[in-house]
Amino acid sequence: MASAATIEKPNRRDFLYLATGSVAAAGVAAIAWPLIDQMNPDASTLAMASIEVDLGAIPEGQIVTVKWRGGPVFIRHRTKNEIEEAQNVNLSELRDPQADAQRVKKPEWLIVVGVCTHLGCVPLGHEGKYEGRFCPCHGSMYDTSGRIRQGPAPLNLAVPEYTFLSDTKVKIG
Amino acid sequence: MSGPSTYVPKSAIGRWFEARLPLMGLVHSSFIAYPVPRNLNYMWTFGAILSFMLVAQILTGVVMAMHYIPSANEAFDSITNDIMRNVNYGWLIRYMHTNGGSLFFLAAYIHMFRGLYYGSFKPPREVLWILGVIIYFLMMATAFMGYVLPWGSMSLAGATVITNLVSAIPLVGTGLAHWLWGGYAVGGPTLTRFYSLHYLLPFVIAAFVALHVWALHVTGQNNPDGVEVQNVDRDTVAFTPYATLKDVLGLSVFLILYAWLIFYIPNYLLDADNSIKANPLVTPSHVVPEWYLLPFYAILRAIPNKLMGVIALFAAIVVLALVPWLDRSPVKSAKYRPAYRFFFWVFVVICVVLGWLGSQVPTEGLTLIARICTVGYFGFFLVVMPLLSFMEKTKPIPASIADAVLPKKQASAQIQA
Fold it and tell me: What is the ipTM score, two decimals?
C-alpha cells in the first residue's frame, strides 16, 4: 500500500507544500540573521582609530604597554643581547617557526599584541625561561621575539599592522 | 507511579475550580499522595535543597538587578559601593547570592555523586539523568556569566579564558570569539550580553527542573537498595508527611551551613583579586575559577595542546550524559557492588585532587599529577564502568524494598496482612 502511494506522481498539493515550506524557511532565516549578527562588533568598535605612539621616551631594555582595540600591545626596546638571542634561535626548535626578521621591522623594536594565543591572558614581561614573556594563566613562555617556546599556547604572539612614521614615531593599526 | 488523581476538593469552590483546571489534584498527586520508597536516606533530600537554592538565587538575583548597572564603567562601583554599602541590606542580599551560588553547586555535586553511587541513572531513569546533566551544564554557564558581572580583575580574566575556548575551533574560532565579545576583546558589550543571559538562564534551568521532576514522577525515585517498587503498600510511604518532613530537616541543616557562610565568612569563597576593578591591560598573577569549576580547569591545563585541552574539558562533562550506557551492570546500588563501590570512592578522590590541582600554580610535577588524574577521571567512565558491567561479582540484592529494611518477621507479617 505504501509503495502504491510513493509511485504516485507529485501533484499540485505537493508543490504547494514545498513552496510554502521554502517561503517559511527563507522567512525564518531572514529574521534569524539580524538576531545573530547584532552580536558582532558594532560600528563604533569597528571605527576605532589606529593609534600613534612616540618611541623616543622608551629607553633600551624597557617594555611599554599601549591599549589598542580594547587590548594591550607591547612595544619592547630590545637590547643588543636580546636581539642576538632572538636571531640565533634554531628555527626547527620552534612550535610556530618564524625568523626574528619576519616579526620585526626594525630589530630594536619588537611590537606584538599582548594577548596569549592560548586563552587570551596578558603575559608578564621579562619573565620566564626565555626572558621574553610568561603567561600566568597556564604557563606559556615566549621568547624575546614573542615566539612561543613552552606551554600550551599554539602560536607566536601576533604582530599587529604598524608603520614607522619617523624614527621615533610608530602608527599601530 | 502516580495513577489518575483521586483527589476531591472539600469546598464547593474548590470542586468548581478543579473541574475547570485540575491544579490542586496535580499538586496533591505529585507532592502529597505521591508514593516514595520507604528506605530513602538523607542523600535523597538534595532535590528539595536544590529546588530551594534555585528559588533563592532567582529571588536575590532579581532584587540585585534593581541596583546593578551593567556597564564596564559602572558595574564595579554599583556592586562594591552601591549594593555593598548604600542599598538597604544590599550586603546581605549580595552575600546570599554569591555564597548561594557556591552552595547550589555543593548540593548539586552531592546530588550527582548520590546518583552515581546508587545507580540512579540506570533504566528506566536515563532521560531523568540526562535532564540533570543539562541542568548542570546550564548551571555552569549561568554561574560563569554571573561571575563576570562584578567586573573585577578576576571577572575579566575568567571571561577571557572561557570565551577564548571557542578560539580553539579551527577556521571559524576567531570570528566566533569576536561575535561572542562584540569586539576584539572582552569588554563593555560582553558584559551587557552576559547580564542579559545571566538573567535569562535561571528560568531556562527552572523549565528543565520541571521536566526533571516530571520524568522523576513518571519512573519513581530510585532508592539506596536500587530495587524497584513492587508493591506500593509494602514498599512505599506517602510523600507527605514522610518525605516532606525529611526534606525540611535536611534543608534546615543545609541552611545552617548557608547562614554560617553568609554571616561569618562571607568572602571566604571569593577571590581577593576580584576586589580590584577589571583592567584589560593587566591579568591577575594567578588566574583561578571558582571552586566548583576547578576540576575541569585542571583537566584543561593538563593537556599540552590547546584544541585537545578544550575538547577534554567538554568531554569531561559530556561523558556524564553517556553514563547510562557505559555502566550496564543490572545491579543498581553500590551497596551490592563491592568493586564498583571501591572505584567510586577512588573517583571521588580524583575529583577532589583535580580540584586542588586546579587551584595551584602549574609546575611540572603538579602538571604530571593532573595528567594522571585526568586519565583516572576518564578511565572511571570509559574503562572501569564498562568492564565492571560484566566482570564484577555482585552481592545478592534483596527481593524487595520492604525485605531490605523491615525485620524479617514484620515483612512477612505485612505480606499476610
Answer: 0.78
